[in-house]
Amino acid sequence: MATRRQSLSLLGRVLRRDAAASLPYLNESRRSVTYMPRPGDGTPRNVTLIPGDGIGPLVTGAVCQVMEAMHAPIYFDTHDVHGDMPKMPEEVMESIKRNKVCLKGGLKTPVGGGVSSLNVQLRKELDLYASLVNCFNLPGLPTRHENVDIVVIRENTEGEYAGLEHEVVPGVVESLKVITKFCSERIAKYAFEYAYLNNRKTVTAVHKANIMKLADGLFLESCREVATKYPGIKYNEIIVDNCCMQLVSKPEQFDVMVTPNLYGNLVANTAAGIAGGTGVMPGGNVGQDYAVFEQGASAGNVGTDKLVKEKRANPIAMLLSSAMMLRHLQFPSFADRLETAVKRVIAEGKCVTKDLGGTSTTQEVVDAVIANIG
Predict the structure, then answer these.
(1) Residue in 190, 193, 189, 185 with CA at minimum distance from that of residue 158
(2) Structural domain contains residue 7
């Protein structure tokens, strides 16, 4: 009898141990939620897909594989677009306007030659006035700084990117920086709304108003006016050169940052480099009617010929951007599953691409993510 009791006791301990070990997985896959979807929320959605140049087809192809493995309710309307085209094809614009959402790989911007950037064309025509890049530490990815979780919100339609340049006389070029009250106010409102909805504590405006007193002064004036409507959120201001120095020395002090166009490009890429590199930072561009999701940091997002040839591009940033897209489309459970799987792969440290010091191929990372999705 004593032997039987001991056996039952041992069996009970084993069952409790196994149940405890499986509990995190059960909690993730069968958790109770209070979310009540509206009728039709589960209807599959069409999304415009632009694979792009360089590593773009590799990393967007990774997203397609993972979406299929998850049985995500997404259908891709794919268009072949390259950065050296003089204009974004009309059928692509019609697709984005019809679907409202686009996933885009990197499009190279030719230097000189009179060819304008398709990225800028897209933002202007769709009025994607807010660019959002989330730069944060990922467990398992070693970086110089800890506790980094910065959201850079950048005005996307004017500033130095207005493209108003002309040659006054031979050898003298005039480039106009355009700042308007309307665009400054709406990007400030978006930044404060984001902070409020995501329980962020501080919004910092980045500027150079000590030199550009009228242009950046107008931007600051707009941010200050909007800040008064959000008394629960702390508001700071910082000059852009000091901002860059502070970013590389104490990045953990920043929370949400709102910037004019050019500064935001520089600040977002700097913050991405601090938090782990351009290959792991998600982002997107959003306006009143449309949203385009892509890698958060632009530096190197088109990639080198060697990476493409060896198929070792890092798909993490694009996968995390696609999780942002899923949440935007009101598929939060799919977004959670994807983000959890990606973070597990990084935490395990077994599948690491070349940009993070490893040798894994894009496909090996995709296979690991799919395996962790379950």
Answers:
(1) 185
(2) no
